[in-house]
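Quick question: what would this complex look like in 3D?
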Amino acid sequence: QITLKESGPTLVKPTQTLTLTCTFSGFSLSTSGVGVGWIRQPPGKALEWLALIYWDDDKRYSPSLKSRLTITKDTSKNQVVLTMTNMDPVDTATYYCAHRSLVGAMDYWGQGTLVTVSS
Amino acid sequence: DIQMTQSPSTLSASVGDRVTITCRASQSISSWLAWYQQKPGKAPKLLIYKASSLESGVPSRFSGSGSGTEFTLTISSLQPDDFATYYCQQYNSFTWTFGQGTKVEIK
């Protein structure tokens, strides 16, 4: 069974860099067609797609945040890491990682982790 | 970038009602559209993928249709467990986009 779990700081200061780790089980990120994505949701607001990494290390980023985001994978550890630079209070949100299925949609999600940006 | 516009933003309905939510893409996305249900404090749940394919385990009262730029999610007979927020998402292009959400409330 597929599970994903996000981990990282719950509080970061403005201008700092956020590093989040998605640790997963039940699938391999070396399997053709598979991917892991990051999505965030500010309190009371809509979902926003951030980034996606594929089994072949192809990486995709939200155009509006591309300059601040880096996504990497460690297949041996079953982990995907997202870094976001220059954090601002508007980046306060619940951050989710999710499994991209072979049919393209996000079929398994982590529980999410709330990150607050405040001095 | 492909923009996704959902309507309505909020929908008030009663148990047993037929409910339809619309999602429009700013350009053609073929059938590369998914629908998710989200309840407060929980992660989204995949309902429909490839515009009309029902995810395993999802009740058959949920259905999706459309292609190109216009899509709909229909709940044939609204149940108490269905009061939630629904999002569409396109995954046609190299970058993905969610709609702004439709909250289904109790009338």
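Answer marked as accepted. Chain A touches chain B through 23 residues (CB under 8 Å).
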